[in-house]
Each structure stands twice: as structure tokens, then as C-alpha cells.
């Protein structure tokens, strides 16, 4: 598996360092160089570096609250700029596009980089491919070179596969799926997945390498037996309208999910958005810079095993839990959560970070179901510096570590309060850490 790192600049904030006693610093830098329409991306991570001595640093706030706020603002300013390459954001395609006409039971193409075997269309080289028409029971497979970038422009496409993925990225450096302006595109699976190689293909769109979705058209995905979209590395979305109905996760990635914009209607049998990497605890991250989301999930609406950062967007989400991750940072957006369990839950899903809920802005509304449920639940710490948090339910806040409230508005069951009313399952108010309850 390609070890691409998450390009979002969510450092271990000074607040987290101070609250956990951790003497670590994390620096992430991202460089984007664009040349002739090609974007090179380089990300550098330095971990476990000692924190500089205070005497060596000028003009750094010494108050923990001021330091946390300063670091958080710096993260906000840098975060989205390193998340998306110029090519991720561009939905353009050039005049040298290869035309692929799907004909129901097969396809016709004007390039030797496109192979057609029955109803299976295989793309073997870099370039831009304009697809239109329908496959009644077939698949589009990308099996290009390891350094090849492939752009698939869906220009009014309907692909159904009775027992496999509609689009399968077997190998490439990166694949861009562009939804052409004004088009409606449909991809579906018939209810089973019969494996053709040693990869467990279990989604309507299954990518072993990085995959980006952009454009302004629409894409409807139906997956009655698996996931909607699976990316074994990074899944990036910068535009488009998506309606995904799936038996399992609507969108699942190993390394990261990064969303700049788009409109999403997700109906998932398990999680709406899910990022998890079993091999690297620093991966499994989700970053949302904007977009409009309606998510109905039987489990978590948005689940990041490690880091979940929301900078902006509009969210109407329903699930057993609304937002779940190890470190959750909300900097903006209008987020409405209806949950039968916890609304926002920072649990120990990753050993890389102390479970923390950090809210610096936005408007978060949480309505919980009856029973042992919490509006904002952290198996570690809670830090609120701004925004509005409006919780309705039996237990508004629950944390096992420390709770700091330095700014913003807190509303509990319709009444504004001036402190975090913490119900600690592991002891009395601010009485130290309880057991990890993940």
C-alpha cells in the first residue's frame, strides 16, 4: 500500500500538549508545484521532535489558553491550502481527450490505451478519457502504470455491474473522476461481488490508489451489498452532487477523506464517511473544508479513526453517533446532529493522540436519544474556545480528562450556561481521567 500521508495541517495543538503532558511536536509541510497542468505534491512529516525551549521562542503566548488559540488559528489558516492540489480543484480537460462510447454490451474507443473485452473496458495508460453511454452489466477498469495519472470524465454515464465494481482502479498513480457540467451519471452493483483477483473488491467504485472526484455534474451510486466508494489510499472530493445508498459505508478510505465542496446525500447501512487505517495509527483522517451534507447512517454519520477536522459546511446528520474520532476539531460550519447514542464522541480509536473534542467556531446543534447518551463525549479532554454548542438531552457533556471553556456560547436544554456541565463517568467533576470507554 502506498504510504501517502494526510495533507491536512492538523498539528498536535499546544492545548493538547499541555493537557496531556506530551512533549512532542508535529510539523507538516505541504508543497504544491504546478507545471503544464501536472501537479507534484510533497508532504513532509516530522514526529517525536522535542518542543523548543520557551527561552528560544520569541513572542509566543505563555498562557495555555492564549497558546491554544494561537496554534488553532494558525492551523485554520494553513489547513485547507495544503489539502487539495490544483488538479484536484480543476474540472477542466484538454482537447486531446480520448472518447469512449459505451454501447450497452460493450464499448468503442479511438485509442490503443483502451481495451474492450465484452462488457469490460480497461484503460491502460495515462490521459483523459471522455465516457458517455451505458453498460448494462459491465465494468470500467483502470490498470495503468504506477506513475500514470488518469482522468475519467463522466459525460452522462450509466454503468451497472451485477456482481462487481462499476469502476475499479487496479493500478495508477492517481485517478480523477470528473462529473461533466450538466450531466447525470449513475453507477450501481446488482447485490453481490464475485472476486476476480486477490483484492477484496466490495464497492461500486473501488480504488487501490488515490482517487479524486471533481466537476459540477451529479453522480448516483447504489450498492445493495457493499460500500459506495472505497479508496485504499486517499479519497478527495472538490465538487459535484452525490447521492449514495449503500449496505455498508457510503464512502470509506484507508488513509484519508478530504472534501473541499460538493453536495452529498448519503444513506448508509453502517457509516456515512469512514476513514480507518489498520497499519498506521497516524492515518485514518477526515478533513472537510465545505459542502452540504445530508447523512442518514445506521452507525456513525462521520467516523475518522484518528483526526476529524471540520472547517465549514452545512450538515444535517442522523445516526447512532454523529461525529466520531480520536481528535475532533470543529472550526466552523453549521452542524445539526440527531443521535441515538453520542452526538460527538472522541474515543480512543488511535493511540497517536489523546481523545479530544476541540470547538473553535461554527454552530453545533445536538439532539440525543433517551438513555445513557451524551451530547459531547470525550474519553480525554474537551476544549471550547468559540462558536455555539446547543445540546438537548439527558447528559450534555461528558469527559474523562479536563474541560476548558474560554469562549463561545453554550446552550443546554434551551438554557445558556457559563461552564461546561460535565458528567464524568470515571469520577467527579474535573477529578482526573476515568477508564477509556471507546
Form type: elongated
Question: Low-confidence segments, ≥5 residues, pLDDT <50?
Answer: 1-80, 425-438
Please give the count of helices: 3
Gyration radius, to the nearest Å? Answer: 22 Å
| Percentage beta strand | over 45%
**Main sheet?**
25 strands, mixed
What is the rounded distance between the termini?
A: 27 Å
Structural class: mainly beta
Number of strands: 40
Mean pLDDT: 83
What proportion of the residues is helical, as a percent range? under 10%
Please tell me about this protein's structure:
- The protein is 6% helix and 49% strand.
- With 438 residues, it is mostly beta strands.
- It has a domain at 14-88.
- It has a 25-stranded mixed sheet that branches. It has a 13-stranded mixed sheet with strand order 5-6-8-10-13-16-19-22-25-28-31-34-37, with no helix packed on it. The chain has a two-stranded antiparallel sheet with strand order 1-2.
- A hairpin with a 2-residue loop joins β1 (25-35) and β2 (38-49).
- The chain starts with 13 loop residues before the first helix and ends in a 21-residue tail after the last strand.
- Residues 1-80 and 425-438 have low confidence and may be disordered.
Amino acid at each position: 500500500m502506498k504510504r501517502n500521508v494526510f495533507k491536512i495541517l492538523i498539528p498536535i495543538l499546544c492545548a493538547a500538549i499541555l493537557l496531556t503532558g506530551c512533549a512532542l511536536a508535529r510539523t507538516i509541510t505541504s508543497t504544491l508545484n504546478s507545471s503544464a497542468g501536472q501537479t507534484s505534491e510533497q508532504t513532509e512529516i516530522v514526529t517525536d521532535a522535542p518542543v523548543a525551549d520557551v527561552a528560544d521562542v520569541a513572542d509566543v503566548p505563555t498562557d495555555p489558553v492564549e497558546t491554544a488559540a494561537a496554534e488553532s488559528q494558525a492551523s485554520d489558516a494553513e489547513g485547507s491550502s495544503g489539502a487539495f492540489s490544483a488538479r484536484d480543484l480543476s474540472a477542466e480537460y484538454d482537447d486531446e481527450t480520448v472518447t469512449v462510447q459505451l454501447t450497452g454490451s460493450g464499448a468503442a474507443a479511438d485509442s490503443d490505451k483502451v481495451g474492450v473485452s465484452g462488457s469490460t473496458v480497461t484503460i491502460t495508460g495515462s490521459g483523459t478519457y471522455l465516457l458517455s453511454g451505458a453498460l448494462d452489466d459491465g465494468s470500467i477498469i483502470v490498470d495503468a502504470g504506477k506513475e500514470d495519472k488518469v482522468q475519467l470524465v463522466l459525460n452522462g454515464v450509466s454503468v451497472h455491474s451485477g456482481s462487481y465494481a462499476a469502476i475499479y482502479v487496479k493500478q495508477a498513480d492517481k485517478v480523477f473522476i470528473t462529473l461533466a457540467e450538466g450531466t447525470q451519471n449513475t453507477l450501481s452493483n446488482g447485490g453481490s461481488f464475485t472476486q476476480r483477483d486477490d483484492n477484496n473488491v466490495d464497492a461500486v467504485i473501488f480504488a487501490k490508489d488515490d482517487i479524486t472526484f471533481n466537476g459540477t455534474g451529479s453522480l448516483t451510486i447504489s450498492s445493495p451489498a457493499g460500500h459506495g466508494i472505497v479508496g485504499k489510499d486517499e479519497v478527495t472530493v472538490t465538487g459535484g452532487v452525490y447521492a449514495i445508498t449503500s449496505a455498508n459505508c457510503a464512502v470509506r478510505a484507508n488513509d484519508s477523506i478530504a472534501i473541499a465542496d460538493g453536495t452529498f446525500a448519503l444513506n448508509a447501512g453502517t457509516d456515512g464517511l469512514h476513514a480507518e487505517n489498520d497499519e498506521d495509527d497516524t492515518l485514518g483522517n477526515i478533513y472537510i473544508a465545505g459542502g452540504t451534507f445530508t447523512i442518514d447512517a445506521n452507525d456513525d454519520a462521520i467516523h475518522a479513526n484518528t483526526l476529524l477536522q471540520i472547517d465549514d459546511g452545512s450538515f444535517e446528520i442522523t445516526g447512532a453517533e454523529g461525529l466520531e474520532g480520536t481528535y475532533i476539531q470543529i472550526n466552523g460550519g453549521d452542524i445539526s446532529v440527531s443521535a441515538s447514542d453520542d452526538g460527538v464522541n472522541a474515543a480512543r480509536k488511535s493511540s497517536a493522540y489523546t481523545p479530544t473534542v476541540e470547538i473553535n467556531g461554527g454552530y453545533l446543534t445536538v439532539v440525543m436519544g433517551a438513555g445513557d447518551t451524551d451530547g459531547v463525549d470525550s474519553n480525554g479532554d474537551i476544549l471550547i474556545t468559540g462558536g455555539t454548542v446547543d445540546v438537548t438531552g439527558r447528559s450534555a457533556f461528558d469527559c474523562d480528562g479536563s474541560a476548558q471553556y474560554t469562549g463561545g456560547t453554550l446552550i443546554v436544554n434551551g438554557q445558556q450556561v457559563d461552564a461546561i456541565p460535565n458528567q464524568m463517568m470515571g469520577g467527579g467533576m474535573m477529578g482526573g481521567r476515568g477508564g477509556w470507554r471507546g
